[in-house]
Specification:
Length: about 180
């Protein structure tokens, strides 16, 4: 996978930009304090940045290293810069990191409602290997409120996804 945008480790100066993207993209955003704490840890937090817009980060990912696998904890692209290949570049970097550390897999957990994220992962060679129910507690019982999809990238043998008709229709690629 060819990297088009430079990917660099997060530096403290850019934490506020990333926190702003978290607020724009997620219902449960990480705060600047959370991100600063992560910056000081060994987990790798990286972003790709555009060379045209004030050298500010426009996409980022949060990774956690395990012994045999790398977890993609978070990935996000600023809404004004989506569909320009930034998230693909970040995943390309994650793949290089995993290969360099001889990790076998990269894993990611995505909610069923996050279709762009699912398509992104599939386009980068991930495949969905498990699904889990998400539960919500009510007064009387825990009820299923959605599904989580568990994606895996096999570093030695990446999956080649061919989008099906339903997926292409949902993505507006065909009618
Ligand atoms: C998912 C997300 C990170 C993708 O970022 P991006 O920088 O736009 O992704 P890319 O430009 O690298 O897209 C690569 C491919 O993924 C697929 N894709 C990404 N977004 C898509 C969308 N909205 N609709 C359809 N396909 C999409 C396409 O196949 C795309 O290739 P193409 O543009 O050549 O068709 C971004 O939409 C985002 O920040 N979403 C909100 C946060 C989120 O859901 N994060 C994931 C869970 S942690």
């Amino acid at each position: 996978m060819k990297t088009r945008n430079p990917v660099q480790p997060l530096i403290r100066r850019h934490v506020e930009h990333v926190a702003e993207m978290e607020r724009l993209l997620f219902d449960d955003p990480l705060t600047a304090d959370d991100l600063t704490a992560i910056c000081g840890q060994k987990s790798a937090l990286s972003y790709s940045w555009t060379t045209t817009e004030y050298h500010a980060p426009v996409a980022y990912m949060l990774l956690e290293h395990g012994r045999t696998s790398l977890s993609l904890m978070r990935i996000g692209t600023h809404p004004d810069f989506q569909r320009k290949g930034h998230a693909t570049d970040l995943i390309g970097q994650a793949i290089k990191l995993a290969a360099g550390r001889k990790q076998k897999y990269i894993t990611a957990m995505v909610s069923e409602s996050m279709l762009p994220a699912q398509l992104l992962l599939r386009s980068c060679g991930f495949r969905c290997t498990k699904t889990f129910n998400e539960y919500e507690s009510t007064r009387s019982a825990d009820v299923v409120c959605g599904s989580l999809l568990w994606f895996r990238y096999d570093v030695g043998q990446p999956y080649r996804h061919v989008p099906g008709i339903r997926e292409r229709m949902q993505a507006g690629l065909t009618t």
